[in-house]
Structure formats: structure tokens, C-alpha cells
Amino acid sequence: MVYSCMRTTVEFDEDTARAVDQLRRESGMGVSDAVNELIRRGLLPRQRSDRFTQRTHPVGIKIDVSNVAEVLEVLEGVDRR
């Protein structure tokens, strides 16, 4: 499929205008090239962030976490309610 180039007026929010200006300064691109590059970057599949790893610490007791109220009572004491 062939698309023709088009001209239009676009109003940028401040943050996107700064991104276009920054890319233009860094690369020497014109406005259209910088906008197209940023659009292409936005179309790329996103990298998955680092996987969450639960940190644990031995506390010297075993707790059944199926009853949250009981767990809180064991960990924080009865007076914390």
C-alpha cells in the first residue's frame, strides 16, 4: 500500500515539544524527521521491565497467611488493632 506524504498543523504539548527539540539538537534532524523518529520509537514493542522478585527474611516462626487478621495479630500484637 502506498501513502502520499501529507502536510498538516500539529500542536504539541510542552513535554512532546521538548522531546522533539531535544532530538533535533542531538541529531541535527528537522522537525518532521524528529517527529517521525519519535513516532517510530513509540510504535516499537516495549521491553519488559525487570521481573519482580519477592525478598524474604527469616523471622523464626511459620505463619499460615490464609487468615490475614491472625497474621497481623501474630506479627504486630493484639493491641495494634
Give a structural overview:
It is a single chain. Helix 1 (14-27) crosses helix 2 (31-43). This protein starts with 13 loop residues before the first helix and ends in a 5-residue tail after the last helix. The protein contains three helices and no strands. Helix content is 44%, strand content 0%.
Q: Quick recap of the structure?
A:
This protein is an all-alpha fold and 81 residues long. It has helices at residues 14-27, 31-43, 68-76.
Q: What's the N-to-C terminus distance?
A: 67 Å
Distinct helical segment count: 3
Q: Sketch the major β-sheet.
A: none
Average pLDDT metric: 85
Count of beta strands: 0
Helicity range of the residues? 40-55%
Query: Rough shape?
Result: rod-shaped
Strand content: under 5%
Low-confidence stretches: none
Radius of gyration: 27 Å
* H/E element order: HHH
